[in-house]
Amino acid sequence: MMEGKVVIVTGAGGGIGRDIALLMARYGARVVVNDIGASLEGTGHDSSPGERVVAEIRAAGGEAVANTDSVADNGAGTRIVTQALDTFGRIDCIVNNAGILRDRFFHKMSDEEWDAVLKVHLYGTFNLSRAAAPHFKDQESGAFVHMTSTSGLIGNFAQANYNAAKMGIAGLSKSIALDLGKFNVRSNCIAPFAWSRMVSSIPTDTPEQAARVEKIKQMTPAKIAPLAVYLASNGSRDVNGQIFTVRNNEIFLMSQPRPLRSVHRSDGWTPESIAEHGMPSLKASFVPMDRSGDVFSWDPI
After folding, report:
1. What is the pLDDT of residues 249-300, one digit of tens each?
2. For residues 222 and 277, is the Cβ–Cβ distance under 8 A?
3. pLDDT, position 300
4. How far is CA 159 from CA 10, 165, 169, 218, 294, in A?
5. Burial zone of 40 (CB within 10 Å; 0-12 exposed, 13-18 middle, 19+ buried)
6. Rounded to whole angstroms, what are the CA distances from 287 to 6, 88, 127?
7. What PANTHER family does this protein map onto (predicted)?
8. Active-site residue 27, yes or no?
9. CA distances in angstroms from 293 to 16, 50, 125, 298, 300, listed in the order given
10. Which of 27, 123, 162, 230 is catalytic?
11. What is the pLDDT of residue 40?
12. Looking at 26-107, which runs of residues are DSSP E strands?
């Protein structure tokens, strides 16, 4: 399904990105494996994780090259795309997977903790997508696969930076789909459930939290890769602007914001009439204060 295509996978030195890169190569893609080799907190720089994945791909008969640019840097997107073009002659898909965490309750979060997570997730997705867009437009084909999260789409504690970035990625993906759809360019999101470094920091202070972590451990990163390969392939030519969740052997199509309920007064509203009539009428349709784990509360299949 990916024969002849060139794919860039960011954060591909381990976890979800590694499995996506390996499966892309197995299905015929030539892969740029991007990873700076940083810690979960984004510190350090080590080229060996990406190089190991490249070695795995080559050992299986595939073609790959490593890249160690940080997607958070303004010029990194152009450098990574240029490397793909110089090495393989084209670019067909971007998988925006790189990420870090700086978990902290909102009222205690520092400027650095906010900025660092937004820079890697949201700015990184923008940087690489914008760099690839002119090439996709000129060749009238291309696919973006962005990693969002149910922590952003639904909510989670102590992750205001991460949640905002992941919700922002969903909005960015929809804008890309709308702006580039007429050039046969697609942009879709995956919200993955998988045990990786990105979720290994989930607290286990209570029996309920510990049980949730044990469930997530059953969901391997390899479960995410098939949908990413499909969304990168020509088989998904009619799939654009969508958000999917993968949870072990389940694939969900996620809702996107639409009106739930309305109230109307022919003479307009006052603060008093909103309090007396408007808000009580709407309250039955309020979205509950759920976390991701409350919505996805059953055992993975």
Report:
1. 999 999 999 999 999 999 999 999 999 999 999 999 999 999 998 998 887 7
2. no
3. 78
4. 22, 10, 15, 23, 16
5. middle
6. 41, 48, 33
7. BLL2957 PROTEIN (PTHR45024:SF3), DEHYDROGENASES, SHORT CHAIN (PTHR45024)
8. no
9. 20, 32, 26, 9, 12
10. 162
11. 57
12. 30-34, 64-67, 93-96
- Please name every residue paired with 247 in a beta bridge, in sequence order, or none if there are none: 193, 250
CB 53 within 8 A of CB 12: yes
pLDDT in tens, 149-169: 999 999 999 999 999 999 999
Strands 243-247 and 185-193: parallel
CB 62 within 8 Å of CB 25 = yes
Q: How does pLDDT run across 118-136, given as a tens digit for each residue?
A: 999 999 999 999 999 999 9
The rounded distance, in Å, linking the Cα atoms of 183 and 93 is: 14
Q: For residues 82 and 67, give the distance between their C-alpha atoms in angstroms, rounded to a whole number.
A: 11
What is the distance between the alpha carbons of residues 194 and 226, in angstroms, rounded to a whole number? Answer: 13
Instruction: Quote the percentage of the chain above a pLDDT of 90.
Output: 83
| pTM metric for this prediction | 0.91
- The answer regarding whether domain 6-256 maps to CATH 3.40.50.720 reads yes
Quote the radius of gyration of the chain (alpha carbons, Å).
Answer: 20
Whose structure tokens read 């650095």? 112
Residues composing the chain = 301
